[in-house]
Amino acid sequence: MDEDFAPRESELSQTYREGEVSVQIDIYEDGEGGWLLEIVDENNNTTVWEDSFDTEKEALNEALDALRAEGIGTFVGPVQETDESW
Predict the structure, then answer these.
(1) What is the average pLDDT across 66-81?
(2) Which single residue of 49, 63, 74, 80 could bond 70 by disulfide (Cβ 3.0 to 4.6 Å)?
(3) DSSP state, 68?
């Protein structure tokens, strides 16, 4: 991959909500012709798929299928504690 590569975010990236809980579905170019998928919760926890997808739409469909099948709670982690003593 080119060191100067700046990934482009897909226009299909979006917020997904179930009740009061929401996550961000992020889809980015991988620099090699594919698309990367990441789900980010409100606490900044992330779930990243290891394999890339051929199209943006395939990545979005995978995210939506996983959220519907497993439930949004599966993709929500704990609040990240920060060490402010630095």
Answers:
(1) 90
(2) 74
(3) H
CB 27 within 8 A of CB 13: yes
- Taking each continuous run of H as one helix and of E as one strand, the counts in the chain are 1, 4
Whole-prediction pTM: 0.85
User: Which residues are CB-contacts of 49 (< 8 A; sequence separation ≥ 6)?
Assistant: 36, 37, 38, 59, 62
Distance between CA atoms of residues 2 and 24, nearest Å: 27
All residues at 6 or more sequence positions from 35 whose CB lies less than 8 Å from its CB, including other chains: 10, 27, 28, 29, 52, 53, 54, 55, 56, 58, 59
Token pair 């798929």 in the structure block, residue: 49
What is the reported pLDDT for 66? 97
